[in-house]
Protein 1
Amino acid sequence: MKFEPLQPKKHYCHQFDCGVETLNLYLQKFANQDQKRNLTKVYVLAEGERVMAIILLALIL
C-alpha cells in the first residue's frame, strides 16, 4: 500500500467508509471535481483499487 494522488479511473471510492458520512460523500462525489478545479489535492492510501484512507489538502487563497 502507498499514498498516491486520487485517480477516479483507478481507485474505487464508492466502498470507502471512514465513519464520517460527510467525508465519504465528499470523496465519492466531489473530490475529483475539486481536484480538476485546483481547489484541493486528494491523496489516497490504496491497496490496488480499494481506498483505505484519504488525505485532503485544501488550497486557500
Note: The first strand starts at residue 2 and ends at 5.
Protein 2
Amino acid sequence: MFTLKKSIILLLGFTLFISCQKQEKKVPKEEKEITTINNEILETSVIYEANIRQYSKEGSFDAFTKDIPQLRELGVKIIWLMPIFPISETKRKATGGDFASLIKDEAERKKALGSYYAVSDFTKVNPEFGTIEDFRELVKTAHKNGIYVVLDWVPNHTGWDHVWLKTNPEFYTKNADGEITDPLNEDGTPVGWADVADLNYDNTDLRIEMVKEMTYWLTEENIDGFRCDVAGSVPTDFWQETIPKLRAQKDIFMLAEAWEPELLGEGLFDMAYAWDGHHEMNAIAKGEKKAADWDTYMQKRFTDYEANDMLMNFITNHDENSWNGTVKERMGDASEIMLALAYMTPGMPLIYSGQEYDMSHRLKFFEKDEIPKTKGKTWENLKKLGALKNDNIALNGGGNPATYKNIPVDNENIMLFEREKNGEKIIFIGNFSSEKVEFSLNQKLEGSDYMTNEKVRFSATDKNSLGAWEYKILTNQ
C-alpha cells in the first residue's frame, strides 16, 4: 500500500510539473511583470505604430528593441507592429506599383521588398527583420517597460505564395472562370491590390484556421492583441465569432482599421480609426474648413458612436505618410496645433515611426528607407502631451471617458472646448487659421499654459487675440 501510494504521489507530482512547464512555455516568467491590459490603462494610453523595416538603418527587431525604453518618455503604452510576417515573392510590388519581376536590372529588382500586407505565412517572422528569438526579446523588453505589443493582422487577403493557395484554394474568392482573384470592389472591378489574393469568409474552415493562427501569437508568443487590417472588409459575423474566442485566451486589445460603429459593439474591437476627424484636420489646415466645423464633426461623432466607444486620433500613419504626404505637406504650419488637438480630443492618440523625429519625407513603401533620429521640437511636444494624457484624468478616452463640451466663440476660426472628469478639467483654445484673429468670450479664462508654463488670461469683457495657429492648454491641477 505504501509503495502504491508513494507511486501515485510521484505520478501526480510529475503530472503537475509537466503542467507547470507547459504553462511556463505560454507565458515565460520574465514576461509576467506587466499588468493585464484593461480599460483603466486604455483610458490613458498613447499608441505607437512601429515600421520595423524603416525604423533603423538595420531594419531589424533588435534595432527597434534598443529604443523601446525611450518610447516611455513619450507616454507610449501600446506598440502596434506593422506586419512582421514573411512577404510573398510572387507578384511582389516595387516602387511605382509595378511587379518586381518586371524589373530587368537584378540590382534594382532586389531593392523591391514588397508590401508587408502580402503575407506568405502567418506563423513565421520576416527574416528581413530577424529571428523569432529576436521578436521574443522585443516583446519581453516592451513588457519590462510596461508597454503592450499588438500585431498588425491581415485577415482580408494573403500574398500569392501563401501555402493555402495550394492546400486550400477553397479559402479564396474566385471569379466566374474559377480563378482566384485579388480583392474586388462591389461592382467586380479590382481594388488595386494585385499583389494579394482575396480570402472568402463564406468558408467555415478558413474561419477556423484564421482563429487558430491568431491564437498561436497570443498563447505562444505572448502578444497583447491585434490591429486588424481593413477590418470592415471582413464579415462582421466573423469578428463576432472570433474575438470572444481570442479574449477567452487572455485579456487583449483589439484595434480595427475601420470606422464602422458596429465593430465596436460589446466584446468586439476596443478601438477604431477616427478617419473623419483626420480628414477634418487636413481640411482645416488647408483652409477648406473652419474651426467651427470641428464641433459639427464632434456632434456627429457623439451621435454615431456610443459614449464609451474609443477612436484613434492621428495626424499621420503609414498610409498617410507614404501615399498622401508628410505632416508638413498636408498640414503645413498647422502641424503643431493639429498634434495637440489629436491629444485633446476624446480617444487615443497615435504616433507613427518618424513623426517623433520631425520626419520630412515620405517613406518608401516597397523598398528600404530610414526615418531620421534627431530629436527636435516634436519630440519635446510629444513628451509633454504624452505625460498629460497619461496622468490627467480629464483626458481619459476609453470605456469611462472624460466629458467633452464645446464652448461657443464669436469667431469661426477659434476652437474652444473643455474636458472634465471627477472635478479635473482641461480647457483647450486655439486659432485654426493662418492669420492673427480677435474674438470675444462670455467667460474669463486664466491660468498657466501647460505647454509653455506662461501665464495666460482671456478676458470676458475685452477683445482677445491669438496668433496664427496658436493654441493654449489650461489645466486646473
Note: The mean pLDDT is 93.
